[in-house]
Amino acid sequence: MTVLIADREPPNILRKLLQVPWLVVLLVAALAGVGLAMQYSAAGGAWDPWASRQAVRFGAGLGLMLVVAMIDIRLWFRWAYLCYGAALVMLVAVEVGLGGRIGMGAQRWLDLGFIQLQPSELMKFTLVLVLARYWHGRTMEDMGRIIWLMVPLLLVAMPTALVMKQPDLGMALMLTGGAIGLAWIAGVRWWKFALAFAAIAAAVPTAWEYYLRDYQRQRVLTFLDPTRDPLGAGYHIIQSKIALGSGGVFGKGFLQGTQHALNFLPEKQTDFIFTMLAEEFGLVGGMGLLGVYLTLFLYGYLIAFRSQTQFGRLVAIGVVWTIFLAVFVNIAMVMGLIPAKGAALPMVSYGGSSMLVTMFGAGLLMSVWIHRDNRFGPRGEL
Amino acid sequence: MSKRQREQEKDRLFTRRALLLGAAQIGLIGTLAGRLYFLQVMEGERYTMLADDNRISLRLLPPPRGRILDRNGEPLAVNRLNYRVTLVAEQVRNVEATLDAIGKLIELTELDRRRVMRDLRRRRGFVPVTVREDLTWEDVARIEVNIPDLPGVAIEVGALRHYPHTESVGHILGYVGPVAEADLTGEPLLELPDFRIGKNGIERIYDRELRGAAGTVQVEVNALGRVVRELARDEPTAGQDVVLTIDIGLQSFCRGRLGDESGSIVVLDVHTGDVLSLVSAPAYDPNLFSAGLSARDWEELLANPKGPLTNKAIAGMYAPGSTFKMVTALAALEAGVVRPSDRISCPGYLELGDHRFHCWKKEGHGGVNLQEAMMVSCDVYFYEVARRTGMDRLAAMARRLGFGDLINIDLPGERRGLMPTREWKQRTRGQPWVQGETLIAGIGQGYVLSTPLQLAVMTARLVNGGVAVIPHMTRSIGGKPNAGRNPPPYPSMGLQRSGLEAMIRAMNAVTLEERGTAYRARITERGFEMGGKTGTAQVRRITMQERERGVRRNEDLPWRFRDHALFVGYAPVHAPRYACACVVEHGGGGSAVAAPIVRDVLTETQRRDPSRRTGPVASLVTPNGG
Question: Which of A274, A284, A277, A273 shows the shortest CA–CA distance to A250?
Answer without folding.
Answer: A284
